[in-house]
Request: fold
Amino acid sequence: MHRPRVLVVAGFDPSGGAGVTADLAVLAKAGVRGVAVATALTLQGASGVERVDATEASLVERTIRRLADDGPIDAVKIGMLARGEIVEAVDAALRVIAHGAVVLDPVLASGTGFPLLDDRGCAVLRERLLRQVDVVTPNAQEAARLGAPEPASTAQAVAAARALLGLGTRAVLLKGGHLPDAPDDVWWDHEGALVMPGRRIGEGRIHGAGCALSSWLAGGLALGLSPRAAARRAKAEVAAAIERAVPEANGVRYLSFR
Ligand code: PLP
Reply:
C-alpha cells in the first residue's frame, strides 16, 4: 500500500517547537511520512529568535529534486524561507518535480518580531511562488504584508482573505489568533467563505501553532481529505494540542503532539 509522503520546506528550530522538527512530528501523528529540507538554522530559545543562518539556495533546490527522484510527493508544506534566493529555488524546484497540493505558511517574522524572510523574499513569494500554492495560511499581519488590508475583526478577515485569493492561490486560510477579539479562522475558496469559530485557550505565548496547523493541513490533503475537511481537522488538532500544551521557560507554551 502507498504511504503518502509530504515534503516539508522550513527552518530548523533547535527547541523543536516550530520548524521542520515540529512539522515532522505532526506528520507522523497524522499518519503520513514526512521528508524535509531545512532552509535555515535558527538560534532561538524561549526568549525568541536571535539569529538566522540561511541554507545555500542551490542546496535547497537540489534536495527537493533529489527527494522527488526517490518517490512521489503527495503534498508540500512550505514554512520559513529566510531569503529571496531560497524562495526562487523552491519556486524553480516545484516547477520541475511532480507533486500534490502545496500549503504555504507565509512565515515573515517570529512571534517576537525577528524577521524570518527578507523583503525580496516577500516580493518573490507574493509575485511568483503564490501562483503554485493551493492553500496559503497567513495570520492577520502576514495578510497585510501580502497586500490585504490588515484585519482587526472577523468581518474584516473575511474581506482580507478574499483579497488574498486574487493573488493566485486556490484557497486562503486566514488565522484569527492575532485578531483582537474572537480568534476565528476564515477559509475562502471558489465556493466562498467559511468562518471557523475559535476561542482563546489558556494564557501565554504559544510557539509553533502556525507550523503545526499548516502541517496538519498538508497531511490531510496527502491522505485525500477535501481541502475544507483538511482545514477543519487541522484546526481541531491544533486546538487540542494547545489544550495539552504545558508552559516551559518564560511561560512559553510548546504544543503537545502526542
Ligand atoms: N522558528 C522557525 C523555524 C519557524 O518556522 C517559526 C515560525 O514559523 C518560528 C521560529 C517562530 O515561531 P513562533 O512565532 O510561533 O514563536
Observations:
- The radius of gyration is 17 Å.
- Residues 10-11, 13, 18-19, 42, 44, 49, 79-80, 107, 110-111, 207-208, 210-211 surround pyridoxal-5'-phosphate (CB under 6 Å).
- Residues 149 and 160 are 6 Å apart (CA to CA).
- The mean pLDDT is 96.
